[in-house]
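Reading is simple: each integer encodes one residue's backbone shape. An example follows:

___
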Amino acid sequence: MTEAPVPAAQPATSSVITIAELETRLLPLRQRLTAHPLYATLRTEKHLQMFMRSHVYAVWDFMCLLKSLQQHLTSVEVPWAPTAFPESRRFINEIVLGEESDLYDGRAVSHFEVYLDAMRDAGAPTAAIERTIAAAADGKVDLRGAPAAAVEFVKSTFNVIYTGSAAAQAAAFTFGREDVIPDMFRVLVREIDQREGGAWKRFVWYLERHIEVDGDEHGPLSLRMVSDLCGSDASLWEEAAVAAENAIQARLALWDGVLAELQVETTSA
């Protein structure tokens, strides 16, 4: 008697995950980020200067990621045509307006430029990031002189920009770039600013402005943007989840690199 053929195994079907499930998946990484030992190690002006020297690259490549999302979500071509997801395109345009041309002391300025001025006020080195910006104006990425951990962080960001879908970029933006600096850090900066007579005024403004603009409204809207771009496509949801995980892991690696520099500086002092 001939045996009946065994049916071929069918590939497991992926299910669409929800934002709540994605947040639960990311929770352990986010907890590690919030509790990173770097924050407790930052104690002096020198420490903050070293922190800013690396962190400024995260401020810069945040703008690169933001502008890439703007290209995906809005129409920047001529002739113009409306794109899908009107709420998300409004949201990303609002973010661009604030990040690229906020008002500081009555003048329009990007948050990156405020940060760079804050570095100068505080005596943090700026030559390397200034070289990066000069090259960017010519369409190039030049990371010479940047701390090694900052270089790797920027590479991870540009990897999702160049190879990731809009959904992956939105997830990296939403889960990997917002509210990563805890209250204890902001308190430290305010205390040093008071002690040093306002030398850290711009940096305090930068930190507190981000608390304000990344508050109740932008959080839910960024989650909506991820949902819009993933839709009912399970593969996009998984790509978004991986991109979010990679973004947080890249931030952890950046903090590890800054912490290692601080420990070397403390030992040699």
